[in-house]
Amino acid sequence: MQKQHEVMQWIMELLSTMEEGLVYIRQKMIQGMTMEPINMFYDVTAAFLKIEQALAGLAIEKVNIQEKAGKLRHALDVITEEYESNKGKRALEIMQLNLEPAFKGWKEEIEKIIIKAAGH
């Protein structure tokens, strides 16, 4: 049980780091630096995958997380495709309309699940 608690704490910290990364990416994009934050974008994507793997190994209720994760995965795919085909010209728009809302919903669902699991 201690290990699960440590994993949940690590997930919460990584969620916060992801959020900071998205803020950084958005700021760079607003400044017109579309390509500069690409490494941070890849780090955010890698963090998402690590959290997904960690969640899969936890013995907690994950009812709504799959749908939220699917939306975030789709948003990450869309922005990746935008970078590959258009050098990120629409990246800020995609980030504001798709990625940020998807991340927020996913993060809130994980936090809800973790808080509920920690309360038991």
Number of individual domains? 1
Largest sheet report: none
Helix content: over 70%
Strand proportion, as a percent range, falls in under 5%
Question: Structural class, from helix and strand content?
Answer: mainly alpha
What is the number of beta strands?
Answer: 0
Query: Mean of the pLDDT scores?
Result: 91
Count of helical regions: 4
Task: Describe it.
The relative contact order is 0.17. Helices cover 82% and strands 0% of the residues. The model has no long low-confidence stretch (mean pLDDT 91). It has one domain. It is built from 4 helices and no strands.
Helix-strand blueprint:
Elements: H1 2-30, H2 38-56, H3 65-86, H4 91-118
Q: Care to give the gist of this entry?
A:
The chain is an all-alpha fold and 120 residues long.
Features:
single chain, 120 residues, mainly alpha, 4 helices
